[in-house]
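Pinned message: reference record for Phosphoribosylamine--glycine ligase
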Amino acid sequence: MRVLVLGSGGREHALARALHRDPVVTALHCAPGNPGTAEIADNHQLDPCDPTAVTELAERLGADLVVIGPEAVLVAGVGDALRRAGVPCFGPDRAAARIEASKAFAKEIMAAAGVPTAAARVCDTAAQAEEALDAFGPPYVVKDDGLAAGKGVVVTGDRAVASRHAASCERVVIEEFLDGPEVSLFALCDGQSAVPLLPAQDFKRAYDGDEGPNTGGMGAYTPLPWISPDLVDEVMATVVQPAVDELRRREIPYVGTLYAGLALTSKGVRVVEFNARFGDPETQVVLDRLATPLATLLQACAIGGLDPEFRPEWHPGSAVTVVVAAEGYPAAPVKGDEITGLDEAAQVEGAYILHAGTKPGAEGRLVAAGGRVLNVVGTGPDLATARRAAYEAASRISLRGSHHRTDIAEKAATAVRPG
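Predicted structure (C-alpha cells):
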C-alpha cells in the first residue's frame, strides 16, 4: 500500500511512524512532513491546504490512501478534492469537518442527536455575549466559533478576561462550566460505523498544576487506570454513534477520526468538544500502544468497509508524551534556535522523539520552527516507568528558553484520580 500523510507536526510524525511499522505499507510519503518524518518517509514540499496540489501529488505517487492530519487541511476541502479524483482519503469532507470548524454547528448536531453536552448560547453581538456571561456565571467558558489552532477557548473566573475574548471573536459560543476530569476518545469512522481507540488524557494549560494559558496540548498519556471499564462503550453508544448517525441523516457522511473531548462530571459524561481529526498530542501515545496494523484500518474507513464489531488490539503497558515548547509559547514562540541532545535522548531505554515544530538549519543543524517543538515519548510496563523514560529523555535535550510541564501523568501514575 502506498500512503501519503498530510501535515508537518508531531501528530503527523506519530502517524507516519505507525504506518512505517505496518508491513503492508510499501511506500510512505509526507507533505510537507518534517525532519523526523524524513527519516522514515519521502517528504514533499507543498501546501497541504491546496486541494489541487495535493490531488496532483497523490495521483503522481499512485497513493492508495491519503491520511489528513491537521484540521485546516480538512476545512480547505482537500478531502473533497481527493474523493472527486477517486483517491481513498482518511479524513472528513469540508461539510463534515464543520463539527470542529464551527462550535455552533457542533452544538446543533449534538442537540439533534441527543448527545449530552454543556448548555450553551451562540452569540453574534457583544450584548448577547454579556447576557450569556451573566446567565452562566463564573467560571466563564468562552469559545471562538471557528478554528483557532487549539487556542480559541478561554476558561476563566475573571469577567474582564472573558469579555475581552468574546469581543475578539466574530462569533462566540458561551457555555456552562463542566466539572470533573477530561478524557479524549478517538473513534475511527467510515460514514456509517465507528470503532473506538484507547482513551487518553491531555494537558492543555502551559504550566504545571494546570496554570497558565490554554495551549494546543503540553502532554498526554494512556491508558487511564482511573476510568470505568464501561466508559468507552457508553461514549460510543451515547455520543459517537448518535453524532455519526445524525450527520449521515443530513447526507454528510463522516469518514475519518471523530475526536470526542469529554468531561466526566458529577452528573455524568458530557461532551466538551468534537474535533474532526486525530488529537495532538494524544495521538502520539494512543498510536504507540496500537498493535493492530494502522494502514488497513484507515483504508477500511476510507473505502467504507469498517467492521463495526472490530476492536483493535493493544500492546500492554503505558505511554507518556511530554511536549518541549519554544520560549514564549503559546503567545509568541521564538523560532530559529538550535536543538541539540536528540541522539542522547534517544538512547534512553523506552523513549523516542517525535518532531513537532522543527526544520533544518544552517550547517546541518536542527532548529525550532514552531511553538511545540518536540514530543518526547516514554513507554514502559506502567505509567510510572513511562514517565521516568520520557522525563529522562527530555532532560537530555537542549533548546534555549524552552519549557515543558513536569507533571504529565503524575497523578495517574500515583493512583490519584485527576481533578
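Pinned by admin. Summary line: The mean pLDDT is 95.
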